[in-house]
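[Discussion] Sanity-checking designs against the backbone

I'm trying to build intuition for which residues belong where. Below is a structure token string of 406 positions. I'd appreciate it if someone posts a full sequence so I can compare it with mine line by line.
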């Protein structure tokens, strides 16, 4: 029998490994949603966050690092199986670290405190207001240093049942590494480290954009984060990346957010994104902006009405009907945050569009170049935009803000 030369075997082995990798790489960037119950906003082809979270956490073998605004569960709610998955992971020896906003812990202490009392679970409260001026608004977690989830969902039972949300699951190594660096920096800051100690540059420069497989196609991804001045690499800052996406638009810009503000609570004007949208409209790009009806507040609606007056711009407000069981505070709202440009480039993250999100609060997201991902976001947008839940903003109308809390 003829012998097979070593190079031939080597090439065959490499080809086999590449084939196996491609077989495993069909959804390395996976869109994940929450559709409010008692609505027709569910997308059967997009998995639900509460199921994805349990699966990811259940697969942890070494570590789980969670960064959340706050944690609040309710008996029988969809967050409880997620927290039980965290507890089970800790019982089997997985190291769990949970970073939460110190200010909001005062409002929702019980679930975090109960987790902190368990073996292998460490909870740190991060006083972002004292450090940066805002809050820990990022919502993400990392499993075994190999995959991550980030998106608009809080660790809140309402976010998994009564709020429209959107996030991503990915195991792209460079995204994981960059987000790990941010988590480690914030963990150190929460423990009292000085900024210069915590925010040291990465050991190796980030190689963004990085390639991610999506079925038979691939896209390019980069991490985007805020606030400026508090990043291991300032090139990650999301605000310039968002402005560049809008300024590069040639045909269409679509944006969905909880809210959109051109001034903050201190009255400081913020027009970076508003000006970019207006520049786009001025060069005949069609701009579509969709926000929650919580934006009917006087100090928010006026900016939206002003933008609606711009030729080529349409702004719509989305109202989710009250649940059959009655009023639920801080729920029944659209909360997803994303941007799609020309059906090609996109951003998905945790920031609403206001000054404090980019300059004072911790937020994270991804910028994606490629139609495979943008098409999914376009479909998500179009369903809500054309639904009975959305209404066009009227520039001369007087709006009454909906009830949001007890």
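Best answer:
Here's mine. Compare freely.
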């Amino acid at each position: 029998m003829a012998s097979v030369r070593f190079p031939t075997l080597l090439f065959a082995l490499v080809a086999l490994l590449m084939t196996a990798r491609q077989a495993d790489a069909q959804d390395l960037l996976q869109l994940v949603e929450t559709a409010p119950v008692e609505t027709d906003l569910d997308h059967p082809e997009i998995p639900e966050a509460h199921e994805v979270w349990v699966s990811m956490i259940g697969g942890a073998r070494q570590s789980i690092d969670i960064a959340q605004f706050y944690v609040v569960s309710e008996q029988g709610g969809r967050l409880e199986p997620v927290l039980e998955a965290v507890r089970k992971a800790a019982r089997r020896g997985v190291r769990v670290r949970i970073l939460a906003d110190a200010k909001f812990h005062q409002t929702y202490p019980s679930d975090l405190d109960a987790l902190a009392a368990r073996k292998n679970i460490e909870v740190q409260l991060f006083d972002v207001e004292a450090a940066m001026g805002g809050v820990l608004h990022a919502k993400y977690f990392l499993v075994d240093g190999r995959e991550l989830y980030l998106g608009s969902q809080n660790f809140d039972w309402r976010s998994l049942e009564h709020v429209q949300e959107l996030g991503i699951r990915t195991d792209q190594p460079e995204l994981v590494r960059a987000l790990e660096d941010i988590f480690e920096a914030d963990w150190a800051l929460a423990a009292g480290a000085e900024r210069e100690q915590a925010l040291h540059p990465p050991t190796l420069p980030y190689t963004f954009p990085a390639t991610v497989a999506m079925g038979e196609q691939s896209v390019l991804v980069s991490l985007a984060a805020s606030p400026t001045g508090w990043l291991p690499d300032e090139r990650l800052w999301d605000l310039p990346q968002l402005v560049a996406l809008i300024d590069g638009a040639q045909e269409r810009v679509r944006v969905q957010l909880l809210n959109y503000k051109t001034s903050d609570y201190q009255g400081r004007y913020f027009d970076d994104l508003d000006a970019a949208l207006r520049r786009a409209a001025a060069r005949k790009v069609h701009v579509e902006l969709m926000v929650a009806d919580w934006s009917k507040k006087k100090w928010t609606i006026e900016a939206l009405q002003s933008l609606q007056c711009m030729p080529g711009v349409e702004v719509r407000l989305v109202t989710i009907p009250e649940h059959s069981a009655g009023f639920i505070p801080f729920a029944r709202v659209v909360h997803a945050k994303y941007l799609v440009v020309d059906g090609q480039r996109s951003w998905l993250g945790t920031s609403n569009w206001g000054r404090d999100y980019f300059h004072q609060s911790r937020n994270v997201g991804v910028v994606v170049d490629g139609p495979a991902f943008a098409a999914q976001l376009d479909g998500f947008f179009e369903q809500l935009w054309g639904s009975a839940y959305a209404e066009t903003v009227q520039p001369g109308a007087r709006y009454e803000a909906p009830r949001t809390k007890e």
